Amino acid sequence: MSTASHSAPEPAIVIDNLTKVYKTRDGAGKLALDHVSFDVPRGQIFGLLGPNGAGKSTLINILSGMVKKTGGTARIWGFDIDANPRNAKNSIGIVPQEIVFDPFFTPFETLENQAGFYGVPKARRNSAALLRAVHLEDKANAYARTLSGGMKRRLLVAKAMVHAPPILVLDEPTAGVDIQLRQQLWAYVKQLNDQGVTIVLTTHYLEEAEQLCDRIAIINHGRLIADKPTRELVGMATEKVVQVTVDRDLVEAPMHPRFEKVELTGGRVLSITYAKDKANAGDVLSAVQSMGLQIVDVVTRDPDLEDVFLNLTAAAA
C-alpha cells in the first residue's frame, strides 16, 4: 500500500539564474542582472536590498512583465512568467517607485478601473474597503491630483491589491513619506501579511528592513551577494562598537592593538570599534584602563543591518 507524500508548497517566488542585459548604443550591452537565484518563502516579509543601480528595480520589472529577461526563469505562485504570463501577473500586485496617476479620476474610480483591468466582477470589487484600509476613505471622491504625495503612495498600495493577489511587491514605498504616514503604511502591510499575503520590499531605510523583514537578499552590481534570515544576516557583522567616557579630557584618541578604530568626541568620549573574533568588551575596557584612564561611563552598540550591508557591498564592489 503506497502512502501519498505531502510535499511543501512551492515558494511564493522562485528566481533561477535570472539575467538581464540591456542593449547599449555601442553594442556592448549593460549587464543589469547576473545569474541571480533565490526563493521568496510563502507568508514572509522578504527584503530585497542593494545600492542604487544594483538591479532591484530591473528584477521587479521583470516580475511585473514590464521588462523582458535575457535568460533564466522566474515563477510567481507556481506560474512561469513566460509559460503562464496571465496567471503569474494575477498572482502579484506591484507598488512602483514612481507615482503615476490619471489626475482626472477620483481614488474610488482609480480602484474601480484597475479592478476592471484585472477582470474582477463588480459584485466582487472591494474599492471602498481598500480605501478605508489605507486611510483614504474621506478622499474617495476627491480628484487624485489634489492628494498629497503620501496619500498617492497609499493609493498605489490599494491599487496593487484590487485583485487580491497572494503576493505584494513594494518598491521603495516610503521614499519621501513622513514618519506618521510611513507607520500607517507599515501597519497595513503587517495586517496584510498577518492575513497570509507574502510581501516583497525594497527600501533604502535599512532600519526599516531590519524591523520588518523575516529574510533579506542583497544585490550589488546585478549579483546576489547575500540571502539569509534577517537575524542571521545581522549576526554576520564582524565588528562591535563600545562608547567609553573617561575621567579627563584627551588631546587625541589613544590607539591599542585591541582596537580596530577609535574616535574622540567632546574630549572625553571614545568610540572604540573592535573585531568580535579578536576581542570582547571586557578586553577593550581593560585596554583603556591600562592606559591610566578611569572609566566613568560605558555604552555598547550592537551591530545592525547597516554594518553588514556596508561591509558586504564594499567587499563586492
Automatic annotation (TrEMBL):
Record SMART domains: AAA
UniProt keyword terms in alphabetical order: ATP-binding, Nucleotide-binding, Transport
Gene3D superfamilies associated with the record: P-loop containing nucleotide triphosphate hydrolases
Transport found in the keyword field: yes
InterPro entries in alphabetical order: AAA+_ATPase, ABC_transporter-like_ATP-bd, ABC_transporter-like_CS, ABC_transporter_ATP-binding, P-loop_NTPase
Chaperone keyword on record: no
GO molecular function: ATP binding; ATP hydrolysis activity
Record domain ABC transporter: where: 13-246
UniProt-recorded name of the protein: ABC transporter ATP-binding protein
Organism: Sphingobium algorifonticola
Taxonomy of the source species: Bacteria, Pseudomonadati, Pseudomonadota, Alphaproteobacteria, Sphingomonadales
